[in-house]
Design a protein that fits this description.
The complex is a heterodimer of chains A (424) and B (702). Chain A has 424 residues and is an alpha/beta fold. Chain A has four domains: 18-133, Rossmann fold, CATH 3.40.50; 141-224, Roll (Ubiquitin-like (UB roll)); 229-318, Up-down Bundle (de novo design (two linked rop proteins)); 330-408, 2-Layer Sandwich (Alpha-Beta Plaits). Helix content of chain A is 39%, strand content 16%. In chain A, the strands form four sheets. A five-stranded mixed sheet of chain A has the order 6-5-9-7-8. Chain A has a four-stranded parallel sheet with strand order 3-2-1-4, sandwiched between helices. In chain A, strand 7 (181-186) and strand 8 form a beta hairpin. The radius of gyration of chain A is 26 Å and the shape is elongated. With 702 residues, chain B is α/β, with parallel strands linked by helices. Among the domains of chain B are: 3-77, Ubiquitin-like (UB roll); 310-408 and 556-615, FAD/NAD(P)-binding domain (3-Layer(bba) Sandwich); 411-553, FAD/NAD(P)-binding domain (3-Layer(bba) Sandwich). Chain B has 24 helices and 27 strands. In chain B, the strands form eight sheets. In chain B, strands 2-1-5-3-4 form a five-stranded mixed sheet, sandwiched between helices. In chain B, strands 12-11-10-13-25 form a five-stranded parallel sheet. In chain B, strands 15-23-16-17-18 form a five-stranded parallel sheet. In chain B, helix 8 packs across helix 24 and helix 9 crosses helix 13. The radius of gyration of chain B is 31 Å and the shape is elongated. The chains are: A alpha/beta (424), B alpha/beta (702). Chain A binds chain B through residues 241-242, 244-250, 252-254, 256-257, 260-261, 264, 273, 277, 280-281, 284, 287-290, and chain B through 44-48, 51, 59-60, 83-84, 87-88, 91-92, 94-95, 124-126, 128, 149-150, 152, 169, 171, 174-177. Chain B: It holds the Pfam family Fer4_20. Chain B: Residues 2-80 form the 2Fe-2S ferredoxin-type domain.
């Protein structure tokens, strides 16, 4: 056999060798997947645009090695414009018969259909890796998407073994904003969080899995220092809760419960023991759920709970959000030095903004419902937030440019506040 | 199938290799908490309550989805497992109505019993329930998603057991999972078969039968209301299914198992089954009586081969009265080996069936043909034989006597003019041809009464050429006559005056000229069962008529049987064994119960026959299996438009063709419509076949 000693690791096999998979059963059908959750990455598009020929070669190898006659190719309907081209390519390499291309619109139905007893399921990328592996000098690569706060987001083929930092710096060209990297999520929406200090982890299956993540959804998303980890975890849990198939309790109710608990933490409704409860829930989910989705769905929260525990504690116990992302713990104000008195924010649903033509607008904190409308509408970005230390502000609207600068060092004020609490 | 050894909680068990840990535990009566697991359904391992530790496995496994393996060592109880189970329960309960006590499933709920078993509280979790309105839109099933824990049992029952598949996991606007009806349709429009399997398997109060659909009582009985409500307990779903399958002989045999007058019943039965039919609220009950009529009409009597007939016992039984009760008892007593003589005072046998119910409803030949089969088993019917004394009868060597004289004495209300020449009573009028009573018909006839007998009188008079009105105390819609009887009478031009009480018969020189009435606002019966009327002031008026027929009830004519102890209502008193106060004398039928239905008479007579047999030294066994066993296919499948499928029932001969003669005025179902009608059955008898899940308290090891 051609691939007797192949150590190739398949996409979707949790790092197991595809050789083991092949020897497992007498496969009679091969399903090659061009399937992707379009909300996460476009890695499949990348493959379709560049490697149709190589992928077909991989299919041929697989077909010959395992004496499989039936080949089914599943492709997400967001890529259906490639179907014609793909058909042509397959025809050239495999001939007219023995294959079928199926456009997938409903992922649920697809999952039911594809995972049959004797159907060997491989991702197109595995087929690419397979065809490349025939070349003795081949260095295994992985197609990944880099996104978030980087200068050069996009899809790249990176060799296994380089560090996350290298990936971000060499391919993503480093952080885009002038801030520092706070954390990186590796592996899409169910992926684990890696802190700045952990970026020297190398990109390898075993390595990343140890952190509770899988790299099937090969996406690396970079988040800057002003990201509120709690708010971020809320969003991830909500997103994942919508993805559950609903069959098992831990996944269906557990993720939503985690979302609810964390949402409360961002809204001043956190309770004692919430963190322990979330950890217990996450850990039970990791062992107790039916499928891999459920086992990994709590990863973003679970890993960030461990790595940013302090921030979660502050939200729950002290009702403080250092990044001022959680409006429950912040107030809005209008920076008197930035406001040009244009009046755009005056259309406040609570009538909480006082002002007038060429006058610096002032938010009445008592009336403000923190809907954030003014913040979104201000073209000068003059609507800002403050936490426990209120900046010096005019109490009534005054003429633009007339309010004395100074005493408005928000950063300093907050910094002092934080330090003071730490020393307590 | 090879047997292997496994150990559960230290107990060594022999197990079949194809089974799951859960199945093996259940066989050994060991309780492993579970909710989504149901014995009749394939397992999915969704609720995570059945987690167990298996030696050599790092993570806890769900017992319901784990196959046993040789030497497997399973631990079902540990603090860690209980913690996992409790957490799963807490998560479910966070998304569940908080208060159990308001739930109709209270104390019958598997979820509630698990709360108790695991000792769960919800306090530390966030409430996640987003309340939705309870779906009460259809007449049979209430869906309360606030009590649903999405265990998916109903989904699997509907799809896998029934092959219907209209329940499914769906996502709401917030993309939260719920168990919905396909395409969010109503159950009716989603082609629900209303078999009730989903309700049966639901472990919570999420799916319930609408209150009142089923009576209280033994579940397996009440779940099949038609059969349960039939006084004789005829297995209705079974014969309806046979008809659907085109197996008419077997259908007829099923009816025969409980009643020797299927043809008569097919025409005149009171249809307790149809009133109870679950389908009635949906779009009309299944026309069970018409199906019975169809089956009995095409019966080729194949069941006779399977009917029992015991050796002669040399005992003699006399039955007084050849109505449905008397003849039914005689039929079974003869089959039990006794010599039976039936004494009938009239020239014809059949009681009310042949001399009471008019021929246009039930032709005499049909009754006669049914009586022939009774004679066939050896019953000797002596017509024109009025029994004057029970003692004399006993002297003739009868070992037992059954009084089944019925209630055939019409009641004349004591008002002035009630005894005039042209004033008659119901039964005398109806059987005037049999008794050769000379009644001269008049141009206008007023029938007093609102029951079925009143309408029999009215429609008979109509057929004899008179103008007929019915005057009765009951209001519109309160008359005891069946709705179609009233409807058909109206079609025939019979007028009905409701809410009237009768003052006197108006006369002129001894000739009836009308009935003087008053209008009644309402009436009720007081604690002594005495009628109390609330009469409208100044409402006295005369309804003109030249002939009056009282159809205001009948009494039992027991003048010849003075030694019988009677009840307050003037009926024969019996004990639980149908025995009267006289040794060896039994009684049954209307003479005991008061005027009732044919099927009630038959049902009583079967029990009486059984008791008489025991009295005569027999075992009283009268049950017989005349039909073949019917394999029940639980997979009923989806049928487009099922809940809207229109019902077909008998049709009437046009009015013009029917009001001048006494020919049978109804036309039964043909083969095609009978099959179609039978296919409307909700097959309630499938539901009791589902395994009733045990509560943890019922396990030996818990």
């Amino acid at each position: 056999m051609l691939l007797e000693n192949s150590t190739l690791c398949g996409h979707g096999l949790k790092g197991h060798s595809i050789r083991n998979r092949w020897n497992n059963k007498e496969w009679n059908e091969l399903a090659c997947l061009f399937i992707e959750d379009e909300k996460q990455s476009e890695n499949v598009r990348y493959l379709l645009e560049r490697y149709q020929k190589e992928i077909c070669n991989g299919i041929i190898i697989c077909k010959k090695e395992l004496h499989i006659n039936t080949i089914k190719i599943y492709i997400s309907d967001c890529y259906k414009e490639y179907v014609g081209q793909l058909k042509e390519q397959i025809k050239q390499q495999l001939g007219e018969l023995g294959y079928e291309i199926i456009v997938v619109t409903n992922k649920k139905h697809f999952e039911k259909e594809v995972f049959q007893e004797l159907t060997l399921v491989h991702h197109a990328e595995t087929m690419l890796a397979l065809s490349r592996s025939l070349n003795k000098d081949d260095i295994p690569h992985k197609v990944i998407t880099i996104s978030g706060d980087v200068k050069n987001p996009g899809i790249y083929e990176i060799p296994y073994g380089i560090t996350l930092r290298q990936i971000i710096d060499e391919y993503g060209k480093g952080i885009k904003s002038d801030k520092e990297i706070k954390f990186v999520q590796v592996g899409g929406n169910t992926g684990a969080v890696f802190t700045e200090e952990e970026l020297d982890t190398t990109f390898e299956y075993e390595n990343l899995m140890g952190y509770g993540t899988m790299i099937e959804t090969a996406k690396i998303e970079v988040f800057p220092s002003d990201t509120c980890i709690v708010q971020w975890a809320v969003d991830k849990m909500l997103y994942n809760s919508k993805e559950t198939c609903g069959k098992c309790v831990y996944c269906r109710e557990g993720i939503y419960q985690l979302y609810k608990i964390m949402k409360d933490a961002t809204e001043g409704k956190g309770r004692d023991g919430d963190i322990e409860l979330s950890i217990e829930l996450s850990e039970t989910m990791k062992t107790g759920t039916l499928c891999d989705f459920g086992k990994s769905a709590s990863n973003p929260l679970y890993t960030s709970l461990h790595k940013f525990r302090d921030e979660f504690d502050k939200h729950i116990d002290r009702k403080v959000c250092a990044t001022l992302s959680c409006l429950a713990y912040a107030n809005l104000y209008i920076d008197p030095n930035a406001c040009d008195g244009c009046g755009a924010c005056m259309d406040c649903p609570e009538k909480a903004i006082k002002g007038g033509e060429k006058l610096i607008h002032v938010i009445d904190v008592k009336a403000c419902e923190k809907c954030g409308r003014c913040e979104a509408i201000c073209s000068k970005k003059a609507v800002k937030r403050y936490g426990s230390i209120k900046p010096q502000l005019p109490t009534e609207p005054v003429e633009v440019g007339s309010f004395a600068a100074g005493g408005l060092d928000e950063k300093k004020g907050l910094g002092l506040g934080r330090r003071r609490r730490k020393s307590e | 199938m090879s047997n292997i050894k496994i150990t559960i909680d230290g107990m060594e068990l022999c197990a079949d290799e194809t089974k799951t840990v859960m199945q093996v535990a259940e066989e050994a009566d060991i309780y492993i908490p579970h909710l989504c697991h149901h014995k009749d359904l394939h397992d999915v391992g969704g609720c995570r309550l059945c987690v167990v530790d298996i030696q050599g496995k790092e993570e806890a496994q769900t017992a319901c989805t784990t196959k046993v393996q040789p030497g497997m060592i399973v631990k079902t109880k540990s603090e860690k497992l209980d913690e996992m189970r409790r957490l799963s329960m807490e998560l479910m309960l966070a998304n569940h109505v908080d208060d159990c006590t308001t739930c109709p499933k209270y104390l019958k709920c598997e979820l509630q019993s698990l709360i108790q078993y695991l000792g769960v509280s919800t306090s530390r979790l966030r409430r996640t329930l987003n309340a939705v309105t309870v779906d009460t839109g259809n007449p049979l099933i209430v869906r309360d998603l606030n009590r649903c824990v999405a265990c998916g049992r109903c989904v699997r029952a509907c799809r896998d057991i029934r092959g219907v598949g209209i329940l499914e996991f769906a996502k709401n606007e917030e993309e939260r999972t719920y168990v919905g009806v396909k395409d969010n349709l109503t159950l009716e429009n989603a082609n629900c078969r209303f078999c009730g399997a989903c309700v049966e398997v639901c472990p919570t109060g999420a799916l319930q039968d609408k209150a009142g659909v089923f009576k209280e009582g033994n579940r397996n009985d009440v779940l099949v209301p038609c059969k349960n409500e039939c006084p004789a307990g005829i297995n209705v779903p079974k014969y309806v299914r046979f008809i659907k399958e085109g197996n008419y002989d077997e259908a007829a045999a099923v009816i025969r198992e409980k009643a020797p007058f299927p043809k008569s019943l097919g025409l005149v039965c009171m249809r307790f089954c149809e009133s109870a039919c679950k389908r009635s609220g949906l779009n009309g009950a299944v026309s069970i009586r018409d199906l019975k009529r169809f089956a009995s009409e095409v019966d080729s009597y194949k069941w006779k081969e399977r009917a029992f007939k015991k050796e002669s016992t040399n005992k003699k039984v006399a039955v007084i009265g050849s109505g449905p009760a008397g003849l039914t008892a005689a039929y079974y007593l003869a089959k039990l080996g006794h010599a039976v003589d039936v004494y009938e005072k009239l020239p014809v046998a059949g009681g009310m069936l042949s001399a009471g119910i008019p021929d246009y409803r039930l032709p005499r030949e049909i009754v006669e043909s049914e009586i022939d089969l009774i004679r066939e088993v050896g019953v000797n019917i002596l017509t024109n034989h009025k029994v004057d004394s029970i003692a004399k009868l006993k002297d003739q060597g009868y070992d037992a006597v059954l009084v089944a004289v019925g209630t055939d004495k019409g009641v004349r209300i004591p008002i002035p003019g009630a005894n005039l020449k042209d004033v008659h009573v119901n039964i005398d009028f109806l059987r005037k041809d049999v008794t050769h009573l000379d009644i001269e018909m008049k141009k206008t006839v007023a029938v007093l009464g609102g029951g079925n007998v009143a309408f029999d009188c009215a429609r008979t008079a109509k057929r004899l050429g008179s103008e007929v009105i019915v005057v009765c105390l009951e209001g519109e819609g309160k008359m005891t006559a069946s709705p179609e009887e009233i409807e058909e009478a109206r079609e025939e031009g019979i007028q009905i005056y409701n809410n009237r009480t009768f003052v006197k018969v108006d006369e002129n020189d001894g000739k009836v000229t009308g009935i003087v009435c008053r209008e009644v606002e309402d009436f009720h019966f007081d604690e002594n069962k005495k009628l109390v009327l609330n009469i409208k002031e100044d409402s006295e008026h005369t309804i003109p008529a030249e002939m009056i027929i009282f159809a205001t009830g009948q009494k039992a004519d027991l003048d010849s049987f003075g030694e019988l102890e009677l009840s307050q209502r003037g009926l024969v008193s019996i004990n639980d064994s149908y025995h009267t106060n006289i040794e060896g004398v039994f009684a049954v039928g209307d003479a005991v119960t008061g005027t009732a239905s044919v099927i009630q008479g038959i049902a009583g007579a079967r029990k009486a026959a059984s008791n008489i047999d025991i009295y005569l030294g027999g075992d009283g066994a009268i049950e017989e299996e005349l039909s073949v066993e019917q394999p029940l296919d639980p997979n009923i499948g989806l049928e487009e438009g099922f809940s809207h499928k229109e019902c077909s029932h008998y049709s009437c001969v046009p009015v013009e063709e029917r009001i001048h003669n006494f020919d049978l005025m109804t036309v039964g179902l043909d083969q095609e419509s009978a099959k179609c009608e039978a296919s409307r059955c909700l097959q309630c008898d499938l539901r009791p076949k589902l395994t009733k899940m045990k509560f943890w308290t019922e396990y030996k090891v818990k």
